[in-house]
Amino acid sequence: MNAWNPRMARTDGADVDVETMSGPSGQGSPQTQVLHTYRRPQWVLARFVARRTARSAILWGAVIGLYVYASTVGFTNLAPTPAGRQPFLAALAGNTGLKALYGIPHRIDTVGGFVTWRATGVISLVGALWGLLVATRVTRGEEAAGRWEPFLAGRTTDRQAAAQALAGLACALLLMLAIATAVTAAVGRRSDVRFGLGLSLLFAVAITAGAAEL
Amino acid sequence: MEIVLCTDGLSKNYGAVRALDELTLEVGRGEVLGYLGPNGAGKTTTIRLLLGLITASAGSARAFGLDVAQHKAEVHARLAYVPGEATLWPSLTGAETLHLLASIHGQTDLGYRDLLMQRFDFDPSKKVRTYSKGNRQKINLIAAFSTRADLLVLDEPTSGLDPLMEQAFRHAVLEAKGNGQTVFLSSHILDEVEALCDRVAILRAGRLAEIGTLTQMRHLSALTVNASFPSDPPAVGHLPGVSAVQVVGRHLTCQVIGPVDTLLSVIAAAHPSMLLSREPSLEELFLSLYGSDEMHRDETYGEVPQ
Q1: Are residues A28 and A49 in the same domain?
Q2: How far apart are CA B303 and CA A58, in angstroms?
Q3: In chain B, count of helices (H) and strands (E)?
Q4: Which pLDDT value is given to residue A210?
Q5: Binary contact (A155, B102; C-beta < 8 A)
Q6: Among A91, B4, B260, B285, which residue has the least CB neighbours within 10 Å?
Q7: pLDDT band at B27 (very low <50, low <70, confident <90, very high)
Q8: Does A35 contact chain B (CB < 8 Å)?
Q9: How far does the CA of residue A57 sit from the closest CA of chain B (Å)?
């Protein structure tokens, strides 16, 4: 019996999940059928969307993390003492252009307040654009290109397919959230910053919410 | 015979245009049904209705005894579909695409897939964006046949294939038929339909014009008669059922619909030196069904969306 060839399956794209054999062996025989079944074919679309969007979610999660890191380090390096930062922060708080860009500043004399002020608005906007573009690409874009048809001709319905695509996007978002949280928490471990994991998570949820809204 | 696929008054309107009008047909297990029609006749609309990808305006379609619109997932688990246009994912390789298509379907026969890749002379290691249209179509065909699904729904599957690959395709269809699989083959390649199909359904402006075996259909069309005579050919134009009479020298060509006895007795009385009669090819049947009023249909209905 040599009906199942694992080497061949791996060259195939790596995730034949479960193999079963029905009937006797006979590789390639037109009459003899040796069927290999795949695990949960009804979830293929969700896995596919998650994989296709994961790379850009990781990239943007890292960009968010980098922005938080830069804002935090920038703040703490501004001056060694809180009193020394005051003139600079007062100038920032009074700048109308920055207010229009980042919103009304609250407690920007603390590291948390400053980073929240700098990051929330901008990152939410970037995240929202990312969410809009990615969601449009994997739903309407792929449909218009005719690439949804193979999925819709599979073991699914229109509604299930749409739910799967959203589930795939949700996975990508979670990945982005995890990376943003991890970087924020890592920055928070610095002695002069001290964000807890819970606060980091809350902050990351706030700044990735823009992407999730779409 | 076990009925695998049946439609009952299946209709589809696109606004004011009737793309499919009360289609009623049955396809049995192990049967290959050729589904013929010119562009815009409603072939792809029918297939999309059979797959439940679009909603019928009236009537219903059932596969394996289940309504296709209400039991999509169950029905799709037992069928494989080859779309007319091979739109695949450009960044995946051929092997990755085959794997993805197999995992969407849920099952595949890897050994048979290897065999089909050899027969179709398909190299799966390249990215889809580098494949020609014919090679992309091969991916869909290999993926569909290797599922061993009970029902294969093929929408003009050989567009873009060269004649050698067309042979590989015919081989695979006949193998599927031999295994008891049912094939719904939409095509406008008449040779292919003639070679493969047990029955032929001909669609005209969204309506089923004819359905039956080729033998049954040939009775609907004229028989071509060629005869040569030692002297001038006899006059046959006035005989019942005879048309398209052409006389070139001592050679007569005509067509006859219905009984041929009167024509034969007139020809026999003139002592022919050669007599040849030929059944109409599918192409002649097809042309006789559409004829010149095809132009008129286009003017009347405009372009029917597929």
Answers
A1: no
A2: 47
A3: 11, 15
A4: 66
A5: no
A6: A91
A7: very high
A8: yes
A9: 18
pTM: 0.78
Q: Is A46 in the same domain as A105?
A: yes
Q: How far apart are CA B273 and CA B141, in angstroms?
A: 51
Shortest distance, CA A170 to any CA of chain B (angstroms): 20
- Looking at the fold, whether A31 and A56 belong to one and the same domain comes out as no
Q: Is A69 on the interface with B (CB under 8 A)?
A: no
Distance of CA B56 to the CA centre of its chain: 22
Q: Are residues A26 and A117 in the same domain?
A: no
Which of A55, A153, A72, A147 is closest to B79 using CA atoms?
A153
**Facing residue for B111 by CB, picked from A3, A44, A160:** A3
- Token couple for B233: 């050919």
Q: Residues of A98-131 as b/e, b for ≥16 C-beta within 10 angstroms? A: eeeebeebeebeebbebbbbbbbbbbbebbbebb
For residue B78, the model assigns a pLDDT of 95
Name chain A contacts of B96, Cβ cutoff 8 Å: 12-13
* Average pLDDT, rounded, for chain A: 77
pLDDT at B190: 80
Instruction: Kindly state whether A155 is in contact with chain B, defined as any CB-CB distance less than 8 angstroms.
Output: yes
Question: Which chain A residues have a beta carbon less than 8 Å from that of B175?
Answer: 30-31
Residue B19 contacts A, CB cutoff 8 Å: no
> How many angstroms separate the CA of residue B254 from the nearest CA in chain A?
46
- The predicted structure's pLDDT at residue A77: 81
pLDDT, residue B174, reads: 95
State the total domains in chain A. 2
Dump pLDDT digits (tens) for B71-86: 999 999 999 999 988 8
Same domain? For A35 and A47 the reply is no
pLDDT exceeds 50 at position B149 = yes
CB contact under 8 A, A13 and B81: no
**Min Cα separation B132/chain A (Å):** 17
Asked if residue A61 and residue A23 are part of one domain, the reply reads no
Mutate to test the interface with A, among B70, B79, B91, B104 (most CBs of A within 10 A): B104
Res B136 pLDDT > 80: yes
Contact B51, B76 (CB under 8 A): yes
Same domain (yes/no): A112, A177? yes
Report the residue of chain B nearest A31, measured CA to CA.
B179
Interface pTM, i.e. ipTM: 0.77
| A11 contacts on B by Cβ (under 8 Å) | 95
Mean local confidence (pLDDT), B154-182:
93
Q: What is the mean pLDDT of chain B?
A: 88
Same domain, A59 and A141: yes
Q: Of A39, A54, A69, which closes a domain?
A: A39
Residue B75 is encoded by which pair of tokens? 């029905």
